[in-house]
């Protein structure tokens, strides 16, 4: 097991909501929401040795809105040529938010995260507020696939839904298609949020996880985690949503999902949440009654990120940082903190 602190917090700065992506050369880029500076920005860190050591590489700054980047970063590498952008281009987004609105903009780096350039606006909303009826947007997730890039996000702009999950797609990174629903429940006050997606090769399906305040909870989970399976990452609106449950315990809030070929003929789906140090696993292609809960070495945190290494797919990186405001005692400063562990070591821990 490997553990490393990439950056610390202090009395005037906090760090949360970590995100990462692995480049085609094996470099890991990581970032997080880093509050305390004005305007806020996303620090970009790089590891070229599988997470053993990290160095600061750049800051992703807001170049167009005058608001900064204060929350909800997203990273991905373009693995194919798209428009004028070559494979290997690093894509980044986040919520550039303030009194003037919420903005999900796309940035690109052609030098592995050393420098960044604004490319386009994907979506805009009003100033941030979680009150139903306030038409703002949150929590982008970038997915390059099949000569298309999709940006998925939480969307409060629809008068029929307090919040829903939406996406838009582009084939040139400059022009974006219509808003498409991914998860939209008929009860107005339901608020599905925080899309993360991965592919399950043995099943030939995609999995989407989201938190679901308002969803069924048998364990007291305030934001129970649900998942859907679909043939296309752009067709989750046709899929059924299942809660993750193990022995009456449900993951809650800010989920993340990855798939690894380790763990059996079906591989293993791994899900993280904010309320548990453990991870939830499924080795039965997502069958609802086959979830397990296994301890992990990484402390619980708000919106931990998971990653399976492309060339060492038995290894799981868990990237964490601070908890949601109010969870920790005043004065608690949690760093951006990476753990790398073998999947088989996770699975050997007794479920429970």
From TrEMBL:
<protein>
    <submittedName>
        <fullName>CAZyme family GH93</fullName>
    </submittedName>
</protein>
<dbReference type="InterPro" id="IPR036278">
    <property type="entry name" value="Sialidase_sf"/>
</dbReference>
């Amino acid at each position: 097991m490997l553990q490393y602190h990439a950056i610390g917090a202090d009395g005037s700065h906090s760090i949360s909501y970590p995100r990462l992506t692995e480049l085609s050369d094996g470099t890991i880029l990581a970032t997080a929401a880093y509050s305390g500076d004005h305007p806020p920005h996303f620090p970009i860190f790089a590891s070229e040795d599988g997470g053993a050591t990290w160095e600061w590489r750049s800051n992703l700054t807001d170049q167009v809105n005058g608001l900064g980047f204060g929350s909800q970063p997203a990273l991905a590498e373009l693995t194919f040529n798209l428009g004028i952008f070559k494979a290997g281009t690093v894509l980044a987004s986040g919520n550039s938010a303030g009194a003037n609105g919420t903005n999900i903009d796309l940035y690109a780096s052609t030098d592995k995260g050393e420098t960044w350039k604004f490319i386009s606006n994907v979506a805009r909303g009003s100033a941030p507020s979680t009150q139903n009826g306030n038409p703002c947007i949150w929590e982008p997730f970038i997915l390059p696939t099949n000569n298309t890039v999709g940006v998925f996000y939480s969307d409060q702009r629809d008068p029929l839904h307090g919040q829903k999950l939406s996406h838009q797609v582009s084939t040139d990174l400059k022009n974006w298609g219509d808003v498409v629903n991914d998860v939209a429940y008929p009860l107005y006050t339901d608020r599905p949020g925080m899309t993360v997606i991965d592919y399950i090769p043995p099943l030939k399906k995609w999995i989407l996880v989201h938190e679901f305040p308002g969803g069924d909870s048998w364990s007291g989970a305030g934001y129970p985690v649900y998942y859907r399976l679909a043939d296309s990452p752009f067709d989750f609106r046709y899929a059924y949503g299942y809660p993750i449950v193990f022995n009456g315990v449900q993951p809650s809030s800010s989920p993340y999902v990855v798939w690894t070929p380790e763990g059996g003929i079906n591989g293993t789906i791994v899900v993280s949440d904010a309320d548990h140090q453990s991870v939830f696993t499924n080795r039965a292609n997502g069958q609802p009654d086959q979830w397990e809960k296994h301890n992990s070495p990484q402390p619980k945190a708000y919106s931990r990120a998971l990653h399976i290494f492309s060339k060492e797919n038995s290894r799981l990186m868990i990237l964490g940082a601070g908890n949601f405001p109010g969870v920790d005692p005043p004065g608690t400063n949690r760093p951006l903190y990476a753990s790398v562990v073998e999947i088989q070591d996770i699975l050997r821990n007794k479920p429970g």
